[in-house]
Specification:
There is one protein chain. By secondary structure, the chain is of the alpha/beta class. The chain has eleven helices and 23 strands. It has helices at about 45-55, 100-110, 125-140, 145-150, 180-195, 220-225, 245-250, 255-275, 295-300, 315-330, 365-375, and strands at about 1-10, 20, 60-65, 85-90, 95, 115-120, 160-165, 200-205, 235-240, 280-290, 335-340, 350-355, 360, 380-385, 390, 400, 400-410, 415-420, 425-430, 440-450, 470-475, 475-480, 485-495. The strands form six sheets. An eight-stranded parallel beta barrel has the order 2-3-6-7-8-9-10-11, surrounded by six helices. A six-stranded antiparallel β-sheet has the order 1-14-17-18-23-20, covered by helices on one side. A three-stranded antiparallel β-sheet has the order 19-22-21, with no helix packed on it. It starts with a strand and ends with a strand. About 50% of the residues are buried. The mean pLDDT is about 95. Bound molecules: alpha-L-arabinofuranose (AHR). Alpha-L-arabinofuranose (AHR) binds next to loops.
Length: about 500
């Protein structure tokens, strides 16, 4: 492998380490919020969960959905809690109590030092509800909705900068599902009205819900053709699973993610050319993760209950490897992917789990997410990597090694993230780092486990990193031994001598 400090992909936008909290299952109720919990703060937020989220350094959190937002009345979640209505939540067929709404979520986001990425309902509602919501959250005062916010105890506007124009509107499961033309028009007009209220905001238009959608990528092309001037980002969503228990094929699935990103960039740039525009649409990969473990169990859940345990995937070690590879893929597209949200954050397909009234713990996928978020800030460096390859059921020429590198110029630190996907063998890697003169090796963190199916539960954490990775640096040449099926973080820093 060769890394040249002058060969840059682009600045890593820290928002690629974003996440997502939907009013779904126990993400909000029993996850971030549980007033009866011994560790709840004065607002009812669990302090143990706040601490775990802070460890992840999550810069932005998407809210309140997800599928849920497409039938959500934001007005139900503001004002005195005792007057908030209980509603049928149609996306997940539960009861929404509305105890937590916009203001409480903004307060929680401040506690974890994150910004809010707010989604508006373009399923059952539209321009009017969206322009009222942004007047409520962002207008300083002296108008109906901004004064209502003040009367609810929030004198200062929340100044939410990033807004999603609906969610997965291409999906037939979505309440208020729309064709590309129907959605393009409502996104355009809603975006226009929202930017009239607050011109400083940035808008994300819905792209496809996954690469398998029959309307991909025509949906993106049509939507952007209509709303190119109003929107700033196009969204991508993708979840993977290992339903056939084929680890080699499963671990290759970030190649599909890479192809998805390339295709959406090409689509954006085709519309840019068609419009003779100077503006470039950036990508917001605002839902990505592994999601399949809980699918069957969820079919047994009684409808119309409050905060049932939905989408509670228990992640294993191989999931952490694929999540690591997906993070590497995002980093290697740092020039165009400016936001991304691991979906989701607590209990619902999440790196953080909780027991109601009890403990909280880290799932296996917590670690690659934390490592990249903490160490992967700076400039993404282009790598020249020649890796041995394999073929799997759905992919050919899968590199055994995935890698991304980030240079933090202020700290004079270089971090190299590596996954070895080989199921049996370790791989020796030599990296030419001679352009990083004066750097020394400070740490080689490894996540490895002999059992691909090992999990972390409330009782036992079997998957956690160690700091005894095998690597040496001499005369700018890095020699690394990548253990079979492992996630590796190699950190170098310019020495003072
Ligand atoms: O994250 C779970 C669900 O996945 C979201 O509600 C939806 O947007 C997607 O289909």
């Amino acid at each position: 492998m060769n890394l040249d400090r002058n060969n840059r992909i682009g600045e890593v936008d820290e928002r690629i380490y974003g996440s997502f909290i939907e009013h779904l299952g126990r993400a909000v109720y029993g996850g971030i919020y549980e007033p009866e919990h011994p560790l709840a703060d004065e607002q009812g937020f669990r302090k143990d969960v706040v601490e775990l989220v802070k460890e992840l350094k999550v810069p932005i959190v998407r809210y309140p959905g997800g599928n849920m937002v497409s039938a959500y009345n934001w007005e139900d979640g503001v004002g005195p809690k005792e007057s908030r209505p209980r509603r049928l939540e149609l996306a997940w067929r539960t009861i929404e109590t509305n105890e937590v709404g916009t203001n409480e979520f903004v307060d929680w986001a401040k506690k974890v030092h994150a910004d809010v990425m707010m989604a508006v309902n373009l399923g059952t509602r539209g321009i009017d509800a969206a322009r009222n919501l942004i007047e409520y959250t962002n207008h300083p005062g002296g108008t109906y909705w901004s004064d209502l916010r003040k009367s609810h105890g929030y004198e200062q506007p929340h100044n939410i900068k990033t807004w999603c124009l609906g969610n997965e509107m291409d999906g037939p499961w979505q309440v208020g599902h729309k064709t590309a033309y129907e959605y393009g028009r409502i996104a355009q007009e809603t975006g226009k009205a929202m930017k009239l209220v607050d011109p400083s905001i940035e808008l994300v238009a819905c792209g496809s819900s996954n690469t398998g959608m029959p309307t991909f990528p025509e949906y993106e092309a049509t939507v952007l053709d209509i709303a190119y001037n109003e929107v700033d980002y196009i969204s991508l969503h993708q979840y993977y699973g290992n339903r056939t228990n084929d680890p080699a094929n499963y671990l290759a699935k970030n190649m599909d993610m890479d192809h998805f990103i390339h295709s959406v960039i090409a689509t954006c740039d085709y519309i840019k050319a068609k419009h003779r525009s100077k503006k470039t649409i950036m990508l917001s990969f605002d839902e990505w993760n592994v999601w399949y473990h809980s699918n069957e169990g969820d079919k047994e859940i009684e409808p119309w209950t409050v905060a049932p345990p939905q989408l509670e995937d228990v992640y294993n070690f191989e999931d952490a490897l694929l999540v690591g590879s997906m993070l590497i893929t995002l980093l290697n597209h740092a020039d165009r992917v400016k936001m991304a949200c691991m979906a989701q954050l607590v209990n619902v397909i999440a790196p953080i789990m909780t027991e109601n009234h009890g403990r909280s713990w880290k799932q296996t996928i917590f670690y690659p997410y934390m490592h990249t978020s903490v160490f992967g800030r700076g400039i993404a460096i282009q790598r020249i990597l020649s890796s041995p390859k394999y073929d799997s059921k759905d992919f050919t020429d899968v590199p055994y090694i995935d890698s991304a590198s980030v240079l933090n110029q202020e700290e004079e630190e270089l971090t190299i993230f590596l996954v070895n996907k080989h199921l049996e063998d370790s791989i020796s890697l030599q990296a030419d780092l001679r352009s990083f003169e004066g750097y020394r090796l400070i740490e080689h963190i490894v996540l490895e486990n002999d059992d691909l199916k090992a999990t972390n539960t409330v009782k036992e954490e079997k998957v956690f990193p160690h700091y005894n990775g095998h690597s040496t640096l001499q005369d700018g040449m890095l020699e690394v031994e990548l253990a079979k099926t492992s996630w590796n973080v190699i950190r170098l820093k310019k020495s003072l001598e």
